[in-house]
Amino acid sequence: MPVTDGQNEKAIRKVLIADDDPAMIRLLSHILGTMGLVVISEGNGLAAYETALREKPDLLILDLMMPHLDGFGVLMRLYGEEPPFESPAILLTAQDSKEYKHIAEALGAVKFIEKPFQLEGLMTTIREILGD
């Protein structure tokens, strides 16, 4: 259930970013913050998995290549459980592969975005997914 800010009762959305690159976390946190989203971040897949279960963010943005558990592993664990995780996930990667895209979608990702990405395009995708 989304949190409200108490003044205008607009839902405050949480987004979990999981990436082992601190610069990417800073960039995405800044972008999401300008969109009025609350950001939670983790530097590895295992921590992201545990945080997702605990915090129940409205959206996950996962890097594919991370230590301890990669983005595919996070997707497998979250969406393979009963009941499956309900929030959508975007998988970001520098890997240029149609095969990776198919795997990500099969594991539950709603979007597969290659790095480098266009900031405006990512923001539009996030708005569409969150229904804003």
End-to-end gap: 16 Å
- What's the shape? globular
Can you count the helices? Answer: 5
Biggest sheet: strand arrangement: 4-3-5-6-7
Structural class: alpha/beta
What is the percentage of strand-forming residues? Answer: 15-25%
Task: Describe this entry's structure for a reader.
With 132 residues, this protein is α/β, with parallel strands linked by helices. The chain has a single domain, classed as Rossmann fold, CATH 3.40.50.2300. It has helices at 22-34, 45-55, 71-80, 98-106, 119-130, and strands spanning 3-4, 11-12, 14-18, 38-42, 59-63, 89-93, 111-114. Helix 4 (98-106) links the parallel strand 6 (89-93) and strand 7. Helix 2 packs parallel to helix 3 (71-80). The model has no long low-confidence stretch (mean pLDDT 90).
Please supply descriptive tags for the structure shown above.
alpha/beta; Rossmann fold; 132 residues; globular; two-stranded antiparallel ribbon; single chain; 42% helix
Give a concise summary.
The chain contains five helices and seven strands. It is of the alpha/beta class and 132 residues long. It has a single domain, classed as Response regulator (Rossmann fold), CATH 3.40.50.
Which secondary structure elements does this structure contain, and how are they paired or packed?
Layout lengths: L2 E2 L6 E2 L1 E5 L3 H13 L3 E5 L2 H11 L3 E5 L7 H10 L8 E5 L4 H9 L4 E4 L4 H12 L2
Parallel strand pairs: 3-4, 3-5, 5-6, 6-7
Antiparallel strand pairs: 1-2
Helix pairs in contact: 2-3
